[in-house]
Amino acid sequence: MTLRNVWIIARKEYNSYFNTPIAYAMAAVLLFAIGVLFAGDVSYTMIFPDFVPGLERVVQIAVAMLIFILPAITMRLLSDEARQGTIELLLTAPVNDGAVVVGKWLGAVLFVLTVLSTTLIYPIMLNGMVQPGLDRGLLLAGYLALVLFTMTFSALGVAISAMFDNLVATFITTIAAFVLFWYFIGIPGSLGSGAVAEVSRYMSFIRYFEAMVGGAIQLTGLVYYFSATAFFLILATVILQSRRWR
Amino acid sequence: MIKVKALTKDYGARRAIEDISFHADKGEIVGFLGPNGAGKTTTMRILTGYMPPTEGTAIVAGHDVLEESLEVRRRVGYLPESVPLYPDMTVFEYLKFMGDLHEVENVEERADAVLEQVQMTDRADNYIQYLSKGMRQRVGLAQALIHEPEVLILDEPTIGLDPAQIREVRALIKEIGRKRTVLLSTHILAEAQAICDRVLIINKGRIVAEDSPQNLEARLAGGGRLSLKVKAKAKSLIPALKALKGVTGVELDEEGALLIETRAGAEVRPEVARTVVAENCDLLELRQHGMSLEDIFLQLTAETGEGEAL
Ligand SMILES: Nc1ncnc2c1ncn2[C@@H]1O[C@H](COP(=O)(O)OP(=O)(O)OP(=O)(O)O)[C@@H](O)[C@H]1O
Ligand SMILES: [Mg+2]
Asked: In A34, A200, B21, B239, which residue has its Cα 20 to 30 A from B147's Cα atom?
């Protein structure tokens, strides 16, 4: 898997997002929702000058929306290639299947991060309004959590996109998988004790995420997000390869 | 340049091709001629490294398609049957992307060069979604040429083109084929005859004949069917016609015309005309039907039993 090929595919994917209305729709929805929250915070600070708006809520609303927006971004990655038949050219070009998967994934991640980076204007503006300014560490940790989320869940999205030729099937399955991995996987852990609960706690993406947003960056959390990303990318490659044997 | 040995491919329980063997050399244009579902696309997909065969081996441009897939893919230009393109890219962007994937060094120059080859220079900045079918076909061809591949595999390259474009594309393929190896598929007999040095006829997943277009033509010119119209008493002619040398069967159709089946290579028209006169009938029409592709398949599969290679 050469980096050159990964980059060629990532660049093409990244650029093509800007040719689709979905990109602008997504950026608009995200910025609008966070903007509403921001306006609320600003008016609150005007009434109660001692109130310092927290950044957690910006990050939390962003992630809650990404659970439903990200599938629309990742669904096309491989499903669309299969639907249009362009996958035949991609899989007969001198490029490893792994490079195709990683390139697609990277293109989507870079695009989402580009959109997310526009939301930074809110914390920056807030920073100027409150005394003594926002906590830089918290700001960084919050956005790091968003980056990790985007990385891992985009990888899951690519894997699901490799399964279907149909965008609707991909979209629905991806949302279901996201909700499962984000909200449900940690439930046994928060209810009981024992081995299952232990595993569930370890596998809960949202638990590490919230800790991170609160400022506690745990090594286990980082390792877990990175290994999950690698696992989903390998899974996507295996699924893509299995197409050849069908 | 292409060496295929005993290739077999099963889709689940369905066998798509069976025991396909052939070769194609440098500077040769080889045509795959066969009806729908014959296994042309399947064979080509194996040769381009898109999917592995169930059994058998294929060497393309000096490398095994299974063992050294990437090496094969570097050296093959492929135009898939569906001509897949990205509608949201411009022609130039698309060619640049495909060139980059194929590690073409001076990719912009090459993109310009292939655009010129397929006469699409003026469309370089058009979005692919707004191109006509024939133009897309040409962009697909340009894409297959961008890395100057040793081997070109073209799955029905002229389908959907108008007659003028068909002529142009055929000329282009002929030109390309002088220095490279070209394998193309078609179900149009005339096309195979017009551009190929050698024709492989494939039916139901097996190669049933392999011949030069000239030989194929000779076989077609002779064998076939005549239709004969006489003013009256058509039925009374049947025994006399059946007795002629080279005639294998005579039938009367609904419109009262006589259909005369002839053996391959036999020219029976003069005899048929004399017979009509001798039997005192008035000849209205005597027409030779060229053999349709269907007829060749019927004939070939009949000649070779279960369709073994000739
Ligand atoms: N992906 C697939 N899954 C299952 N069966 C397939 C698949 N692709 C092709 N087949 C079957 O394999 C056989 C050969 O198909 P193939 O597409 O190779 O024929 P073809 O000669 O290219 O036909 P056409 O002229 O219609 O393009 C057919 O019976 C077809 O139904
Ligand atoms: Mg076909």
From this structure: B21
Interface test with B, best of A90, A92, A240, A244 (most B CBs within 10 A): A92
Q: What is the pTM of this model?
A: 0.85
The three state secondary structure string of chain B is CEEEEEEEEEECCEEEEEEEEEEECCCCEEEEECCCCCCHHHHHHHHCCCCCCCEEEEEECCEECCCCHHHHHHHEEEECCCCCCCCCCEHHHHHHHHHHHCCCCCHHHHHHHHHHHCCCHHHCCCEHHHCCHHHHHHHHHHHHHCCCCCEEEEECCCCCCCHHHHHHHHHHHHHHCCCCEEEEEECCHHHHHHHCCEEEEEECCEEEEEECHHHHHHHHHHCEEEEEEECCCHHHHHHHHHCCCCEEEEEECCCCCEEEEECCCCCCHHHHHHHHHHCCCCEEEEEEECCCHHHHHHHHHHHCCCCCCC
What is the predicted pLDDT for the residue at B219? 66
Residue B310 pLDDT more than 50?
no
Nearest CB partner across the interface for A86, out of B52, B86, B100: B86
Name the residue with the closest Cα to ligand 1, atom 10: B16
Share the mean pLDDT of chain A.
89
Those residues of chain A that have pLDDT short of 70 are 1, 51-53, 131, 246
CA of B42 to the centre of ligand 2 (A): 7
pLDDT attached to residue B308: 41
**Residues of A with CB below 8 A from B11's CB?**
246
Average pLDDT of the segment spanning B118-126: 93
pLDDT digit string, tens, across residues B192-243: 888 999 999 998 899 988 888 877 766 665 566 788 888 888 888 888 888 8
Structurally, chain A folds into a number of domains equal to 1
| pLDDT for B256 | 83
